[in-house]
Each structure stands twice: as C-alpha cells, then as structure tokens.
Design a protein that fits this description.
The complex is a heterodimer of chains A (about 350) and B (about 230). With about 350 residues, chain A is an alpha/beta fold. Helix content of chain A is about 40%, strand content about 20%. Chain A folds into two domains: about 230 residues, Rossmann fold, CATH 3.40.50.970; about 120 residues, Rossmann fold (3-Layer(aba) Sandwich). In chain A, the strands form three sheets. Chain A has a seven-stranded mixed β-sheet, with helices on both faces. In chain B, helix 7 links the parallel strand 5 and strand 6. The chains are: A alpha/beta (about 350), B alpha/beta (about 230). Chain A: InterPro entries: 2-oxoacid_oxidoreductase, PFOR_II, Pyrv_Fd/Flavodoxin_OxRdtase_N, THDP-binding, Transketo_C/PFOR_II.
Chain lengths: ~350, ~230
C-alpha cells in the first residue's frame, strides 16, 4: 500500500475512526490537541459523535457513559489532563468498561512543559486512580506503531471489558512520518450483552456500577478482576529485542528514547562495541521474564536504562526483572529535554567500562 | 538558478497545509539567500505547532547572519500565540529580504490578517507549498480549497506554488515527480505558476528534467535520532 505522510496526533485520530470509534470526548491540551481537532472535523462525517467537554474530568465521565451504553469510546489528553482523568479510569476499571485513552506525554510535574516527556510511567502502569486495577499500556515508538496500536486497542478493550491506554511522548504526536494503513489483527469479540441499551426482551436489568455495599461481594469482584488481569498479563505482553544476542550492554528504553538508542547502537557497533536494545512495547504488562532471561546471559555485563524522566520510573521494573544480577546505569532528562545520541553513546561506554 | 531569482519578491510568505514542509523550505531559502549575500530576516510565525519550528534552528541561522524573529523570544517553547513587534521591521525595512514562515492551514495563516494592509504595500509573494503525500491536499481540488481559504483568511493573493513533496527519510525522485503532477494540476486550474520543485541535493540531478527549476535543499529540521 502507498505510504502517506501523517502527523502523529492526526494519524491516531484517523486510526480510531477506522477502528470503529463511535464517540470521542476530549479537551484541548498541548501537545495532543490535534487529536480532538481532527476528530471534531472527521468523526461526525464517519457517523460518530464528537464532544468537546468542559473539562478532562467531564470527558472521561462521558466516556464512562458511552462505554456503558456499548459504544466504542475514546478520549485523549496530555499528562496534566490525564491526571484529571484518573478517577474516571479507576471507575471504568471497576465497572468493567472498555475504552481507549491516549496520553501524549509532556514534561511535568504539574503543568511542566509542552515539550515531550515520559514522567507518567508510574501513573500509567501503577494506576493513578484508587483501588486494585490494571490497564494494558501500549507504548508506540513511531507513528506507524501509534496508528496500529490505537486500532488494536479498541479490540483489546472490548475483549477484556477494560480501559486500554496508549502512552507516548509528545514527539510521536507532533512529528510527521510516512505510514501505511495496513490491516491490524482483528479479534473475535464477545457480544456486549452487558451494555445499558434498554431492557427490551431481556429478563433482567443491566447495571453499570463500581460500588459494592457488601464487602464479600466486593472481594469476589476484585478476585474476578484479578483473574482478568492475569489473563491480560499473559496474552497481551509485547516487547522487542534488537541486537541483544551478543550485547555486553543492553539499553532499556521505550518510545522516542528507544528510537534514539537505535542510532546510538549503530554508532557503538561501528566502533566494535556490543550494545543492544530491549524495548518494552507494553509497559503493563512489563516483559519481566524476557528481561530476567537476558540478565542471566553471560555476555550481558550491564544495563543502561534511558528515559525522559529525571529519576527514572521504568527503571524500577528493570530492577525487579534483573534482580541485582547485573549493574543498572541510568541516563535521563526531564522537563521536555530529550537524551541525545552522543549522551547515550557516552553512557553506554561508561557502563561497558565499569561492567568489565 | 539562484534563490533570489526563484523567489524574486522582497518578502516571501510561506503557507500551506500542516506537514507540507514550510519550515524546511523557509530555513533553506533563508540560508540560500544569505549565501547569495542578501540581508535576510526570517520570521517564525507558527502559532499552531509546538514542535519542529524554524526558531529551533536559530543558532544555525544566526551563524549565517540571518535575523530570526519568533513569537516568544525569551521562551521558544511557550504556546502563546503572541506576535513579535520586530515583525514590522521586515515589512518596513526595504533593504532586507524577508521570509515569513506561517503555521499550517488557514488557522495558522490567520496571523497575517492584521498585517495585510502593510503587506499589500510591499513587494510580497504568498507562496503555497504542496506535498502530494499529505492525504488532505493530495487531490488538486482539495489543495485548491486550502489555497483559497488561506487567501480568504489573510486577504492576500497567492502568486506562486512550490512542490515540496517528500516522505521524510523515505523520499525518492518518484515522490517528487508525483508532487510535480499535483502542482501542475493546481497550477493549471488556478493559473498560479509553479516557482520550483524542491529536492534534496542528492536528488536534484534525478529530477532536473522537470519543466520548472529545482531548488536544492538540505534537511535541517532533523529528528533527534537522525544524522
């Protein structure tokens, strides 16, 4: 298929429309405003509904309502706006409602900066809302993946009746890249016989709710959710290993830093230095087993975690996987500054030196 | 052919749909004019996009003697749609060659409206940049609709088309030719001449047979992993 040039955010919106998104509820915030902008112009033409809500809180609760009525619903925002949506995400996880949430991350904390960031890893993978819940978190590292993942996200959400997040740094939303509209895997999905679409011939009322007055009932509900999360963790895991077969230093990175790492690895390999990339594609579930196996390889001397975060957040999951077998170095910038190829090359060299 | 003959008016106003490559063209044009000994001022009037703006190339441009004006001098990352007072210098100082890099779409072009009375008194050219790989402007009919709405919003008349068709790192001469066909269709239907086709220096020879001149460019607006 012929390639087209798309801006990340516009492509994400178009991908959602192609995936059968019925309703989009959003609120503008840089650097994701092109998503609602594109949706406002194109979703109604495709027979869907676009609403610019009065706030992010309102938008996520509109998603709750639409999803409860069996619609394919979506919202998008950027970091501070995603913070506002956390209560709604927790409620949707509790009420078992499918939806797609895109976070086009900027630097934080607070209002931070409009430039790209990755400081929302904890929020996305640990749950920024209350209670025991999980969401599948897909993290594209280019516009093509963003387009593919957004389309798949609707199916994943419907399969598990659970919110799915697509989390990317602002650069992926803002940049132009050639993409193709290739077919994405479609799933056999269960009927939405739980949706509140009117009782009609049914012998019972469908109720969408996350409140359980009886603690034993709430305990059973949580147990049911846990079994579902175990299934998601087993079935939805994605990661990529590049040139790890002989690597002495393995860079762990996702999103744009993973992309920068590829150029750094090319430079290092040209100098004869064995460096590879381990890229989690799902941030939850995290590819713990694969990274654990890699850390047991004799040729791996050290890991270098690179994030657009000052302290590092994903590094916690890297540590839990590596379990102290090998040293883990860190390179990070926050506040909208991206790590450079040169910094990665230097950090990998330092890790290599220390690892020997 | 020199840049000053291809872009022969004192003030070049670069407009078009998002992602057509307006900023890359603006930066290349500024550098080419400066290399030809012209005094150049480049105004980054992109109030639409928060990333990939010509002001990010300020050190490189200033090293070439080009004065860069942007909406937020103190903070290049602020998303405040404020216009710089220095913009008037481009319109009032007739000794300089001015380039106005405008944000995408009629929305981005609206910034020009308030300067319209001044602009029309100057030797200006409103340039419409085309990229046949952008889905919303790849049909001549849609591209012309964009062009007309930019004219309507700005109160200025477009008098030149630049074919800047590319696919980022995946550009080929065939892509440039595809864009040439689109530019020709737009030109035929509107009567607006094609000023030139842009081509990375490495492709300039491969497309030198196109009817209109080729403006060779180098890629300045690189992504962080690009060398």
């Amino acid at each position: 298929m012929e390639k087209e040039l798309w801006k990340g955010n516009e492509a994400i919106a178009e991908a959602a429309i192609r995936a059968g998104c019925d309703c989009f509820f959003g609120y503008p915030i840089t650097p994701q405003s092109e998503v609602p902008e594109y949706m406002s112009a194109h979703l109604p033409k495709a027979g869907g509904v676009f609403v610019q809500a009065e706030s992010e809180v309102a938008a996520i609760n509109m998603v709750y309502g639409a999803a409860g009525a069996g619609m394919r619903a979506m919202t998008s925002s950027s970091s501070p706006g995603i913070s506002l949506k956390q209560e709604g995400i927790s409620y949707m996880a509790g009420a078992e409602l499918p939806c797609v949430i895109v976070n086009c991350m900027r630097g934080g904390p607070g209002l931070g900066t409009i430039q790209p960031g990755q400081g929302d890893y904890y929020q996305a993978t640990r749950g920024g809302g209350n209670g025991d819940y999980r969401t599948v978190v897909l993290s594209p590292s280019n516009v093509q993946e963003a387009v593919d993942f957004v389309q798949e996200a609707f199916d994943i959400a419907d399969q598990y009746r659970n919110p799915v997040m697509v989390v990317m740094d602002g650069l992926i939303g803002q940049m132009m890249e050639p993409i193709e509209w290739r077919p994405v895997p479609k799933r056999d999905l269960p009927p939405k016989d739980w949706a509140t679409t009117g009782r009609k011939e049914r012998d019972h009322n469908n109720i969408i709710n996350s409140l359980y007055m009886d603690p034993d009932e709430c305990d059973r509900h949580n147990e049911h959710l846990r079994e579902k999360y175990d299934l998601m963790a087993k079935n939805e895991l994605r990661y990529e290993e590049i040139q790890c077969d002989d690597a002495e230093v393995v860079i762990t990175a996702y999103g744009t830093p993973a992309r920068i790492a590829l150029t750094a690895i090319e430079t290092l390999r040209a100098e004869g230095l064995k460096v590879g990339l381990f890229r989690p594609i799902t941030l939850w579930p995290f590819p713990e087993e694969a990274l654990r196996t890699l850390s047991k390889s004799d040729h791996v001397k050290a890991f270098l975690d690179v994030e657009m975060s000052s302290c590092g957040q994903m590094i916690d999951d890297v540590r839990l996987s590596v379990e102290g077998r090998k040293p883990i170095h860190y390179l990070g910038h926050a506040g909208g500054v991206m790590p450079t190829v040169e910094e990665m090359v230097d950090a990998a060299k330092a890790a290599l030196k220390e690892g020997k | 052919m020199t840049a000053q003959t291809l872009f022969s008016h004192r003030v070049s106003i670069i407009t078009g749909h998002y992602g057509t490559g307006k900023t890359e063209l603006s930066v290349n044009l500024a550098l080419a004019l400066a290399a030809e000994g012209k005094r150049v001022m480049l105004a980054d009037l992109d109030i639409v996009n928060p990333y990939f703006r010509s002001r990010e190339r300020r050190p490189q441009l200033e090293a070439a003697g080009i004065q860069v004006i942007s909406s937020s001098q103190a903070c290049s990352d602020a998303d405040v749609p404020a216009l710089p007072a220095e913009l008037l210098a481009i319109l009032e100082n007739r000794d300089i060659r001015g380039i106005l890099d405008i944000g995408g779409d009629p929305v981005g072009a609206r910034v020009l409206a308030r300067f319209q009375p001044k602009i029309v008194q100057e030797d200006y050219q409103l340039i419409f940049v085309l990229n046949a790989n952008r889905p919303e402007v790849r049909e001549a009919e849609h591209a012309i609709a964009y062009l007309r709405s930019i004219e309507a919003v700005t109160g200025l008349t477009c008098s030149g088309i630049v074919n800047n068709t590319h696919l980022c790192g995946e550009t080929t001469p065939a892509e440039i030719r595809k864009g040439a066909a689109l530019a020709e269709a737009v030109s035929r239907q509107t009567g607006i001449p094609i000023l030139c086709h842009t081509a990375e220096v490495r492709f300039a020879d491969a497309v030198s047979d196109l009817r209109e001149p080729v403006f060779p460019i180098t890629i300045n607006m690189k992504k962080p992993w690009e060398r």
